[in-house]
Amino acid sequence: MLDAINIALMVATAVLAWLVPVELFASSYVVLGPLHYLTQLAWLRDRRWFTAGRFDPLVLALPVALLAFGRQIDPLVQSDWRTPVVFAILLAAVILVVVSQWRIRAILFAAATLLAWSLRRDPALVLLALMLPSAIHIFLFTGGFILTGALRNRSGVGVVSFSIFVATAALLLFYPSPEANHVAAPIFARALVPFAMIRERLGLLFGFAPDRFIGVDRFLGWAYCYHYLNWFSKTRLIGWHRGTSTRLASIALAWMTCVALYAIDYSVGFMVVGLVAMLHVVLELPLDVRTFAGLPLVVVRAVRPAAIR
Predict the structure, then answer these.
(1) Predicted structure pTM score
(2) What is the count of structural domains for the chain?
(3) What pLDDT does residue 27 have?
């Protein structure tokens, strides 16, 4: 039933993304985004962040402040320091999942930091750092969870759901369109301004001319909207809504505050809510690491159930 619901959500959001990509992206990002971040952070906290150590979340969360409010660092550091910070956070998440002893962790953290800094100018790493909080999180990680769930449950409908997920992304990105670009009202178009570099890199990555980014806009509008709806469609399954009335009221109040900030001053809203968004991305990384590390075993069990006892 849940797989069928998600197929319907994929198709519905794809139609909207085809017709009004910028409007879909802006409304989803501003309205659904904050509610997703807040509810998932509460759920991750209930699951102890999918790590073993009590202070593990701080290792991932503290660098986020640098990324969110680090403009003061720019004059002090001559190269792009954000790339190694993002890569180091990703490596730290892997270390937190794999290693439990803090002495070994400390050594590996230092090695990860040095590695990240030494590769700071690598084009592939720069692209990874740019896409990890955006396209990788909303598309690749979402697809990984869909595929893992389908194979773990040996669900034919789930496999169909994953296939439609991939096909929809390809269709929105590459299907030729008579339009060069979709012209949206300024109130919606400004939501894309902070994503200009992401749009440009994705467009160049797929070989689009600078004036033919309509496929990128459709993909982003669909991917973000479905990413949020996919989370809310699993409410009964994962139970993020379970909790005291006080906590739910706090989440609702924080959500309304976030939306109000966007309405009053979009740049302020983007800065404040962007911090919450980045926190939810990095604090989910241990779960992402566990999911993708276990995916090969899930595939083997689904293909050859008797191979593993």
Answers:
(1) 0.89
(2) 1
(3) 93
